[in-house]
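Below is a filled-in request sheet from our internal design queue. Each sheet records the structural input a requester submitted and the sequence that came back. We keep these sheets so that new team members can see what a complete request looks like end to end.

REQUESTER: design group, bay 2
PRIORITY: normal
MODE: inverse folding
CHAIN LENGTH: 259
BACKBONE (tokenized):
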């Protein structure tokens, strides 16, 4: 497939009714040819990672994927601009991290639909099953890595970090490994805050949405507990952008991703 024809890819999930990703435009700007090729290859790897879980149905809200990807980008840009974690947050890595954010919940295709769509709090047993989505997603990417090798090493690294560790907490009380502090990969710490903000401000089958102000309060209260203090500080500094993104991509059919 030529480069021109590959600039628009159909990214679909395993559900026959609706794909996790709709058609998305790829318009690289100021990227090296090597990064361009890696990026296109990784989009195909995302498809393969999803197809490795074929036959398991899961409907993901498209808006959640779009919003959290933008949130991660905002946090990473602000941290880099203010001199935090600059050894990781290079321009190329920020792009790769924000791209990998869109597959953070791919493991949920392996979770029973009755758990995903339950209109009430989960039982302890159901929650233990839900928690396995981090491992299921990680394993899917590892299988993909074994199939394709490492055509985009850094992307696979960030994808694995985010998928596996975005439910870890700064104080060590998260899952699946109970990592604490900077033992949690930075990409996953960014994803953790983005994911929680979107969960708080979105209506779910089991809860109503919080206001932006209430979500800001909750995140501020959990700085140094759930969240990396620097990441929480970056959120508070950019919270107006979060609010704008939340409003802009409230429609789940709006799939303007960083690609």
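RETURNED SEQUENCE:
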């Amino acid at each position: 497939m030529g480069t021109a024809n590959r600039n628009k890819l159909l990214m679909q999930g395993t559900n026959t009714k609706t794909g996790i990703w709709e058609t998305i435009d790829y318009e690289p700007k100021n990227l090296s040819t090597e990064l361009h090729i890696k990026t296109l290859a990784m989009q195909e790897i995302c498809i393969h990672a999803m197809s490795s879980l074929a036959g398991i149905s899961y409907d993901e809200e498209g808006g959640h994927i779009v919003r959290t990807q933008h949130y991660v980008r905002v946090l990473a840009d602000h941290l880099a601009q203010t001199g935090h974690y600059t050894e990781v947050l290079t321009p190329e890595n920020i792009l790769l991290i924000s791209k990998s954010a869109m597959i953070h919940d791919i493991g949920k295709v392996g979770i029973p639909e009755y758990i995903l769509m339950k209109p009430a709090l989960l039982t302890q047993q159901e929650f233990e099953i839900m928690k396995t989505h981090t491992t299921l997603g990680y394993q899917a990417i590892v299988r993909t890595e074994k199939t394709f090798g490492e055509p985009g090493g850094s992307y696979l690294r960030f994808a694995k970090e985010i998928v596996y560790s975005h439910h870890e907490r700064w104080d060590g009380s998260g899952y699946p490994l109970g990592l604490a502090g900077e033992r949690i990969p930075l990409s996953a710490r960014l994803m953790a805050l983005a994911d929680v903000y979107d969960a708080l401000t979105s209506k779910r089958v089991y809860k109503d949405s919080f206001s932006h102000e209430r979500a800001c309060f909750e995140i501020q209260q959990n700085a140094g507990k759930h969240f990396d203090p620097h990441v929480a500080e970056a959120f508070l500094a950019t919270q107006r952008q979060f609010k704008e993104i939340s409003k802009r991509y409230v429609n789940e059919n709006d799939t303007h991703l960083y690609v």
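SHEET NOTES:
- The chain has a mean pLDDT of 80.
- The longest strand covers residues 8-10.
FILED BY: M.R.
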